[in-house]
Specification:
Blueprint: E1 4-6, E2 12-14, H1 18-26, E3 41-44, H2 51-57, E4 65-70, H3 73-83, E5 89-93, H4 99-105, E6 111-117, H5 122-126, H6 152-158, H7 161-172, H8 177-185, H9 193-203, H10 215-225, H11 228-242, E7 243-253, H12 256-271, E8 287-290, E9 294-296, H13 300-305, E10 313-324
Parallel strand pairs: 3-4, 3-6, 4-5, 6-7
Antiparallel strand pairs: 1-2, 7-10, 8-10, 9-10
Helix pairs in contact: 1-2, 7-8, 7-10, 8-9, 11-12
């Protein structure tokens, strides 16, 4: 089975860590370990073009349910087309930050598996009209959901150079954020992604060989305008409440900021930690919600076939019965 999904005559999307993610969300080491169709309720929190969902559906029983979320209207159009052919699918046009609310609206309290593929998809990057990339010229938009919110072009008109620099530094880890921000604010308008990238390039005193100097700045603006890290934090927090005991969480990330959030979340809730409270005579530990975290990277073969997979990490764990960690005996 190919993991490349054709989305139009021009754009296609190659799903990253496809069998690994579906195996993890089903709670098996590899898909060959699935010996019969699986019942239950599963969620693909970032449908995209449906690569992970399509493969997962091959292993789900006729009575199973798959709820798919996405912010992007184009992704939702693909999801609705697939749902018209498969009654197991329910489609939600919303951010996974509103996971619990939307599941409750569907009458779903608990689920058996939850997966997400964070960041921007290949069709979004390759479509110049979306403004995510400077490889094709387009409007400076960068919104995941084009039906709401503010495009980057409008935000750049009103943000101060200092605020912009803070965004470039915090979300793009751009060391030259101050100089780049001043250069961006000197532009008369923000109508072209290539013009914006060129201004950043001219302002950048040094950059990594083989990497465009505007890469980190574009990433930072995209993450900020879509509140991506805030959404990830909200999504992870809600996973505790929606997963059944024995249910699996599987999340793919592509850059260090997202990966750090996932790693720290799973570490915190797989170990149990002290909650500081000066008013309690004995400080209790947090409940232990997840089992030992797992981490999977792409194979050399996958990276060779799809270079965009090289920075991907899949992390996940099993939801436990809530275990209150015992106090230290001393």
């Amino acid at each position: 089975m190919s993991n490349t999904i054709s989305t139009s005559d021009e754009f296609s999307h190659t799903t990253v860590l496809l069998p690994e993610t579906v195996a993890m969300v089903l709670g098996v080491k590899q898909l060959n370990d699935v010996t019969s169709k699986v019942s239950g309720v599963y969620v693909d929190a970032t449908f995209g073009r449906g690569g992970h969902s399509r493969l997962l559906l091959e292993y789900l029983a006729p009575e199973a349910t798959l709820v798919v979320f996405d912010k992007d209207p184009e992704a939702i159009a693909v999801a609705k087309s697939l749902a018209a052919q498969d009654e197991r699918i329910k489609v939600v046009h919303d951010s996974f930050a509103h996971l619990t609310k939307n599941l409750q609206a569907l009458g779903i309290d608990k689920i058996d598996g939850l997966m997400a593929d964070l960041g921007v998809s290949s069709p979004q990057l390759d479509d110049g009209t979306r403004g995510f990339s400077f490889m094709r010229d387009g409007v400076v938009d960068m919104r995941m959901d084009t039906t709401r919110g503010e495009p980057v072009s409008e935000w750049l008109q009103r943000v101060s150079a200092d605020e912009l620099a803070d965004v470039l530094y915090e979300y793009g880890e751009e060391r030259h954020s101050r100089k780049i921000a001043r250069a961006i604010k000197s532009m008369p308008n923000y109508t072209s992604t290539r013009q914006l990238a060129e201004v950043i390039k001219q302002a950048h005193p040094a950059w990594q060989r083989g990497k465009h100097p505007a890469t980190q700045s574009f990433q930072a603006m995209r993450i900020f305008i879509n509140n991506e890290l805030g959404d990830v934090e909200a999504f992870l927090a809600q996973s505790i409440g929606v997963l059944k005991a024995g249910g699996m969480l599987a999340v793919i990330s592509f850059h260090s900021l997202e990966d750090r959030l996932i790693k720290q979340f799973l570490q915190r809730h797989s170990r149990g930690q002290y909650e500081e409270d000066a008013h309690l005579p004995i400080i209790p530990k947090c409940p232990k919600y997840f089992g030992k975290p797992k981490r999977v990277g792409p194979s050399d073969q996958e990276v060779k076939a799809n270079p965009r997979a090289r920075s991907a990490w899949l992390r996940g764990s099993v939801r436990l019965d809530t275990i209150l960690v015992a106090q230290d005996e001393n």
